[in-house]
Every structure is written in C-alpha cells, then in structure tokens.
Amino acid sequence: MDTNKQLSSGKKLVRNFFSLSLVQFANNVLPLLTVPVIVRIIGPDKFGAINFAAAIVTYFSLLINYGFDLTATRAIARAPHDKEERNRVFSNILFAKILLLSLSLLVFVPSLFLVPAMAADKDLFIFTYIACFSLVITPNWLYQGLQELHQVAIFNFIAKLLFTISILFIVRKEEDYALQPLILSLSQIAVGLCSFVWAVRKYNITIIPVGVKNIFTLLWTEKMIFFSMIVVTLYTTTNTIILGVVQTNKDVAFYTAGWKLIMIMQTFVSLPLRLSLFPFIGESFGRSKADGIAKVSQLIPFITIFTAVSGAVIWVLAPWMIQMFYGSQFGEAVTVLRILCFVPLILALGDLFGIQTMINLKMDKQFFNITLLGAGVGLILNYFLSKQSGAAGTAWAWLLTEVFITSSMWIFLCSRKIQLLKISYFRLSHLSQLVRPFVFTLKKKVYKNI
C-alpha cells in the first residue's frame, strides 16, 4: 500500500514538473525564440532599453505578488480538500492583490513624469507595466497548492505561442521595439483571464468580499516572505538597474543576453522543480519534520548532478549559443554566459536549503536575515564590479552573492542539527530509485501515444 502511495505521489510530482516546465517554456523560451530575429532589427541599444524597463517594472510586480506564490500555495497545500478554506484564501489573495495594484499605480504614474529615464520613454514603460494587471487575476498559486497544473500550462502555451507568432509580424523596424513588451503583456493578461475563469468554475470558488482591515492583517502576517522576496530582488534584478546607471544600455544588453540564456536552464529545471516540489515537500513536512527533511535530502543529489552537468554543457557551448541567438554584435555576452553557467546549481541548492526547508519549518525570519545580509553583500559587489568590469562584473557579483547566501543557509541549518547533505544518497542505487517515477511516467506517455 505504501509503495503504491509513494508511486502515486511520484507520478503526481512528475506530472506537475512537466506541466510547470511547459508553463515556463511558454513564459520564457517561446518569447526567447523571437530574439534572434528581433535583436537584429532593434539592435543592442534598444534591446538593453527593453530589459532595463523590465527590471524597473519587476519591483511593481513584486509588490503585487507579495510572495503569495509561496504563502498561498502553502496554505492551500495543507488543506487541499477544505472548500471553505479554499474560498477564504482565494478571496483574501484576490482583494489583497487589487489593493496592491492600486498602491503600485500611485507610485508608477508619478514616476513616469518625475524619473528622467522613465519620462524619456513613457510608452516602453507603460507597455511593460500593463503585465502587472495579469498578476491580480492569475491564480497559479491555487493550481500549485492543489498540484493540478496541466490546465494553466495549456493556457500559457497557447497564449505565448500566439505572442511569438505576432511579434515576428509586428516588429518590423527599430522604432517598433516598444511593441514587444506590449504584446507580451497582453498575452499574459489573456492567460490570467482564462486561468481565473477556469479556477472559479472547476473548483466552485465563491468570492467573498474582504474588508481593508482583513487585507492589511493578511499583508502583515505574510510580511517576512514579502521582505525576503524584496531582498532577493535587490541582488538579482537591481544588478541590471545598477549596470544601466553606471554603464550603458549596450552593457545591459550584453549582461541580459547571457542572463536570458541561463533562464532557459531555470525554465526547464530549477523553477519547475521548485514550484512542483514546494507543495510536495510541504505535505511531507505537514506529516512530520523528519519526513520533510528526508525528502529534501533524497532530492539534493539528483538536482545537484543534473544542474552541474547542464552548467558544464552551457560553458562549452557558450560561444555558439551567443552567436546563434544574438549575432556577432554580442560577443561580450560569451564571458557573461560562462560566468553565470553554474548559477542554476547554486540557486537549486539555495532553494532546497531555503525555500523547501527553512520556509516549510517556519524559519521565515532566519531566511529573511540571511537573504538581507546577502543582498547587502550583493549590492556592494554589484556597484564596484559593474563600474569596474561592466557586464562581466555584474555577472560575477550575482554568482558570488548566490554562493554566499547558499553557504550561509547550509551553515545555519547545520547549526540547528539539520543535516541535508548525505553522501550515501549520491550512490547510483539511490539515484536510480529516485528517477524511477519519472521514467515510469515517460514510458506510460510514450506507449500511450504509440
């Protein structure tokens, strides 16, 4: 019975992993497929401007999301069959995001006129910001908590496929560069509407009005995760902004060119694993602390080996990848890509130590303190290395910051007698047992299609 239950859980995890991979493929890779064409039309300068605007708008997105992808997922995962709790959480998140969107507009609109960089290119920033409206109505956290992600994966894929086709026909000259974020924003809103309506109908969601007082109570309760997300953004997204301030749009273009290719690896491995594992591991921690820790320890070897090998492949293929995607104008991005190729490995370990373990053990405050310290280190490294070495310096700053944070999390867990790294789990016998549900599911899909 236990074996069947374990196999069933493994199959569900595999299905969610592949569903999230499809979501991330739609969100990141399909738009990236247009890059070889678009970047040759608009050039490095405009490509850098698009990414600079995206980095600024990330802060507004962060405010609206407020870490609900983690906290709301956790709440749903712990009571997946409680309809009243589901309605309560859904309504709280919806009205909280509406309030946060309103607050972000109060900051964004004046900034369009008061901040010189934004005032100089209003259309670009407005078109990029429109995507924030999709965050209010996209309940990915609900699907993640219920571990049912195949529908939202389909919505994402169809919308982004239409985006990819549209962008190739609409952006025809350099002056059309601002249309790229507009089309992307509209596709995200389309996905949000479809997934929202589907969720309400499929799960019989009843939307309950939520008072402002209750919203602020929720925001206060979940503040540590939100602050942690802000801190993480300080050393990931802010590096693009700092680079744009101390260098040029071309430097931003070279850095983001390498960064976007690294995001392909994140798209197919790290992020889907993180989002599919969080409710899966959260359920294990719900049973017992020991069960949750055991699950994380068992997964570390597989994820470590996979991301390390992937990083090595990227290092070898870096010159060819940059040439194919961006052309000869982006030669400096090869160095950036090679510096960043092992960032997914460090991020994956940091995610297992931090999100999957510390957050599930309610060590939110300690998680925040470590990321805050790391953000401080990252900002200092970012400023000096970006000023001295341009795009390559920014890449080194991010890599070193992630190493510092992941090491700090591991040291903290060890101090609490939580040992996650076990050499015995790196043996071939354990790894083959771990991937068995993946192989079983893939074989089933293949034979089904024959």
Task: Describe what you observe in this structure.
The chain is mainly alpha-helical and 450 residues long. The protein has two domains: 10-221, no CATH class; 223-442, no CATH class. It has helices spanning 2-33, 35-65, 68-77, 83-114, 116-119, 122-129, 132-137, 140-145, 150-170, 179-202, 212-221, 223-236, 238-246, 249-287, 289-326, 333-340, 343-359, 364-415, 428-449. The radius of gyration is 22 Å and the shape is globular. Mean pLDDT is 83; it is low at 445-450.
Essential attributes:
single chain, 450 residues, disordered C terminus, 19 helices, transmembrane, membrane, cell membrane, PST family polysaccharide transporter, mainly alpha, globular, Poly_Biosynth_Transport
Count of discrete structural domains: 2
| Average predicted local confidence, pLDDT | 83
Listing every helix as H and every strand as E from the N terminus to the C terminus, the arrangement reads HHHHHHHHHHHHHHHHHHH
Give me the number of helical elements.
19
Helicity range: over 70%
Distance between the termini: 30 Å
Strand tally:
0
Low-confidence stretches: 445-450
Beta fraction: under 5%
Query: Largest beta sheet, briefly?
Result: none
**Global outline:** globular
Query: Could you tell me the radius of gyration in angstroms?
Result: 22 Å
Structural class: mainly alpha
Pfam family, one: Polysacc_synt
Membrane topology: Multi-pass membrane protein
Keywords: Cell membrane, Membrane, Transmembrane, Transmembrane helix
Subcellular location: Cell membrane
